[in-house]
Amino acid sequence: MSATTAVRRIRSPLFYRLQRYGVELASLAFGLVLVVWSVTPIYNMWKIALDSHEGIFGDSIFPEAPNLESFRVVVTQDFWYLERFWHQFGNSFTVGLSVTGLTLLIGSLASFTVGRMRLRNGWMLTNAALMTYVIPASFLAIPIYRIMQIYGLGNHLSSVILALTTFATPYAIFIFSQYGKSIPMELDESARIDGANPLQIYFRIYLPLMAPALVAVGTYALLLAWNEYLYNFLLLSTPQSMTVAVALAQFLNSDESPWNYMMATAIIYALPPIILYYGSRRYMAAGLTMGGVKG
Amino acid sequence: MSGTQQALGFGSSVGISQSQRPPWRIRLQGSDTTWAIAFVIPYVAVFAAFVVYPVIYGLWMGRDPSLYGLLFSDPLYLTTAINTLMFVAIGVNVAMFLAFLLSGFFMSRSWWVRSLLVIYLIPWALPALVVFTSIHFMLVTQWGLLDSLIRVVTGQDGPLFLVNEWIARGANIVSFIWKWMPFWTLVFIAARMAIPQDIYDAADIDGASGYKRMIYVTFPLLGNVYLISTLLATVWALGDFNTVFFVTSGAPGRLTDVLATYGFNEAFNFGYPNLGVAAMMTALPIMIPLVILLMRRVRATGVQL
Asked: Is the distance from CB of B248 to CB of B136 less than 8 angstroms?
């Protein structure tokens, strides 16, 4: 062990105070840069949504005569792209909640079997699950599009639900098995001694103890399903079955669409993830540190 | 050896996790096997129907060697491949490095830094369709926000963002960084929080402060997380469709396409799905080694994301 400590030059108290203020000021300036960087596209969304049709094409950086007309049009379904807006909003929710429920159910059952019931060669299941991520979702879109038609699920919400569940479940299994390691096996064993069958162990012991992991994964699955575009676009093309994401992208098909209506729709569409995200932030952070992110 | 180096166990890896296989102490009883199979069937069914079958179908779609001849003779394909490589290499590395630096900034305990973190995470929390379309509108010249800002500052029109291919490529990369940097910053913050304070105290005694602390203490300890995050981000970026599709749609022409949008165009706009699949398959020689490397590192070091 080295017997010397480094020697630091001591300067005057004024120097240190100025240094602290300087650092504080630099941090504040940097923070301002970061806010501008993060928020500018969001500001742009609001600017266009609050503008009238002529105002969008002007060159002001502020909305010229801000009004809530676009929002009114969206909410009352007053435009032909938006005729079924609330139905499509409901479709998005159906897809999101179904994906969440299915992912949690299938993922927890699978990780319960592999981790707690010690299924022989269960590790093959986990590895195979992670293989899903070898080929990116956007690459698999073309075959899956064809296959959904073969299965007869075209323009049906369940096609999107099943496709997205497939992409969310491996991550769910991974998180559940990591988290499950912190639940002692003795609980399962004592339940077995008391005569419980695996189904009862699953419902009475495993699920309640896994609650934080369930919330974290559920939030992740819901955000994944809500924010997803490509599969929604490919698999759902009728106005009855479309989700809001697809309806939004319709505006982009023509050059002359009313962008203010589109941005107003986009803002309404963006609200649930923001609410969900900020409401469950603690659990999302917990999901990242489940077991601790150790190097 | 200084005290810090010894505390770090310098030269040997830090934080090797426990073995991954649990001891098979209890055998599955006979009746339990039925339960186990019943529990596992939902996932196996989903996996077989929506992963195995599509992958096999996709491989079958891309089986014709003449497709690849057609692909490599297309000059646009070469441009697309280079775009993808640039997009991934620059986007991922810049995002990761900045996320690493910013995670240090966000470790501060001031109240305003913590509320700043909340705002900083908005790009990642919002749907890609929404934010990238907004960025697209910022780039449209004459009435886009960027052009208006440039006019306010310099009094002249800005460049034609979506007509100049290099600016468009830059826009794609910057948008990618804008959206993903917050997520990786969060990962690094979580990793930094797992570093015990004692190590920093020991470093302090040895006289390391400021950037020396970062080079000799923080960076080695976060090394594994950094590597695994980079690998994962690369895998995700190779298949990234949303960014390029909404920000530039390959503008001008199809000069800024990446593999995912190129394949999508071929399959759905030109009615040649096999070519689209073939284009995406050409990424596999890079993708598969990356994933194998990633899974090896995760298993070896026990890093959990």
From this structure: yes
What is the full DSSP assignment across A72-133? Answer: HHHHTT-SGGGTTHHHHHHHHHHHHHHHHHHHHHHHHHHHHHHHTS--TTHHHHHHHHHHTT
Residue B51 is given by DSSP the state I
Of B22, B36, B50, the CB nearest to A113: B36
What is the spatial distance between Cα B288 and Cα A56, in angstroms, rounded to a whole number? 46
pLDDT by residue (tens digit) across B194-253?
Answer: 888 888 888 888 888 778 888 888 888 888 889 989 998 998 899 899 999 999 888 788
pLDDT tens figures, B139-171: 887 778 888 888 888 887 778 888 888 999 999
Domain ranges for chain A, please list them.
75-288
- Architecture of the domain defined by A75-288: Orthogonal Bundle (1.10)
Q: Does residue B305 contact residue A293 with C-beta atoms inside 8 Å?
A: yes
In the block, which residue shows the tokens 């050059």?
A255
- Domain B69-301 fold is MetI-like fold (1.10.3720)
The token pair that represents A39 in the structure block: 């928020």
- What is this model's ipTM? 0.85
Closest among B112, B159, B122, B186 to A43, alpha carbons compared? B122
User: Which two tokens mark B278?
Assistant: 């073939």
Residue B252: cis peptide before it, omega within 30 degrees of 0: yes
- Residue spans per domain, chain B: 30-61, 69-301
Q: Chain B neighbours among A 54-73 (CB < 8 Å)? A: 56-61
Question: Best interface-test mutation with B: which of A139, A277, A289 has the largest number of B CBs within 10 A?
Answer: A139
Q: What does the alpha-carbon distance between residue B245 and residue B248 come to, in Å, rounded to a whole number?
A: 6
Q: Which of B184, B183, B175 is nearest to B97 (CA)?
A: B184
Report percent pLDDT > 70 for chain B: 88
Continuous segment of H or E residues that includes residue B194: none
